[in-house]
Amino acid sequence: MDLQGDCRVTASRFTDGPVVVGVDGSATARAAARWAARDAALHRSEIEMIASANLSADDPYVLEPLRARCERALAEARRVAEDSSDSTDPLKITTQVVDSPPVTALLEASDRARLLVVGNRGHMAGHRVALGTITTALAEHCRCPLTVVRDSTSNWSQASIAVGTDGSPGGRVAVDAAFAAADLRGVPVTVVHAWCDTDVADMSVPCTMSEWPSRRSRADAWLDAELDEVRRRYPQVTVRCAVTRDRPARALLDHAQAAQLLVVGARGRGGFAAMRLGSTSLSVLRSARGPVMVVPRDR
Q1: pLDDT above 50 for 2
Q2: Is residue 190, in this structure, part of any structural domain at all?
Q3: Distances from the Cα of 285 to the Cαs of 70, 237, 248, in angstroms?
Q4: What is the mean pLDDT of residues 256-270?
Q5: Do 92 and 174 share a structural domain?
Q6: pLDDT digits (tens, 9 = 90+) for 73-93
Q7: Which backbone phi and psi does 189 adopt, to 5 degrees?
Q8: How would residue 210 be classed by pLDDT, with cut points 50, 70 and 90?
Q9: Residue 124 — very low, low, confident or very high, per pLDDT cuts 50/70/90?
Q10: 3-state SS string over the chain?
């Protein structure tokens, strides 16, 4: 089976549709709106902003103030998005308050979206919470690429795109998405491949320090061959390959520090078949300081 060809078909399903933004009035939601506006301007995409006024109670004295807060949050997110775009063409933005729970509403929207953008935590989460429960659920079940944004401003200019790959179908889809993003932005891409999937301090790891030079040479050759097809499709993208003996999550986080966006597959070759979000992707989402895009293998 041609896995790379299969991944190209999957990735192409994400090229149409709006950018959907989850809004709850938090600082991270406004940062998500800002990031989404810049991405939508590049793709000439429409933006849909969704806020949830879901409560178990039907008391209008409770629901109406909540709806009003959602409307204010959407208006603020819209203003942030409009102020963030450098495009001469005005952004087309629609907003809606929904009655369904936020996870349900945003997952339904992901069926038609090109991209879903949310903050890493909502307004109810404390500052020590690295990844909120809603964002975690979306990362596990989203049917389109999901970008998780922190409340700090990311370096959008000429910083590179970083992506991790392990040769799995999920890794190949992530690489394809990273190259497409780098091509559109006119920036380089850094492809990270971690040779060892476990802690290098573990004595059971077969890749010892004395063996590393020869293993590194083989890993470099493997990665070069792995990227051959995507390089041909994006000949104008400058590529830097980084083969490391470090743990995958730690290696990705290290290279993400100098990147404007880190791209990962929802799940690599580890774990079990029913797993929707791998441990490396979850670790990166929790610890990354900049935006992280999680690309599902299919939708």
Answers
A1: no
A2: yes
A3: 26, 26, 13
A4: 82
A5: no
A6: 999 999 999 998 776 788 999
A7: -125, 135
A8: low
A9: low
A10: CCHHHHHHHHHHCCCCCCEEEECCCCHHHHHHHHHHHHHHHHHCCCEEEEEECCCCCCCHHHHHHHHHHHHHHHHHHHHHHHHHCCCCCCCCEEEEEECCCHHHHHHHHHCCCCEEEEECCCCCCCCCCCCCHHHHHHHHHCCCCEEEECCCCCCCCCCEEEEECCCCHHHHHHHHHHHHHHHHHCCCEEEEEECCCCCCCCCCCCCCCCCHHHHHHHHHHHHHHHCHHHHHHCCCCCEEEEEECCCHHHHHHHHHCCEEEEEEECCCCCCCCCCCCCHHHHHHHHHCCCCEEEECCCC
250 & 114 share domain: no
- Assess contact for 116 and 109: CB atoms under 8 A: yes
Cα dihedral value 284, 129, 54, 101, nearest 10: 20
Torsion over CA: 159, 290, 3, 7 (sign): negative
In a domain, 139, yes or no: yes
What are the backbone angles phi and psi of residue 257, rounded to the nearest 5°? -60, -30
131: left (phi over 0), alpha (psi -120 to 50) or beta: beta
CB 177 within 8 A of CB 43: no
* pLDDT value of residue 208: 56
Among the candidates 149, 173, 191, a domain finishes at: 149
Inside any domain, residue 154: no
Residue with the bigger pLDDT between 249 and 208: it is 249
Among all chains, which residue has been given the structure tokens 């404390």? Answer: 126
Q: Would 248 be classed as within a structural domain?
A: yes
Which residue is associated with the tokens 């307004």?
123
Burial 223-253 (b: 16+ CB within 10 A, else e): beebbebbeeebeebebeebbbbbbbbbbbb
Domain carrying residue 92: 3-149
- 63-67, 164-168, 237-241, 278-282: the lowest-pLDDT one: 63-67
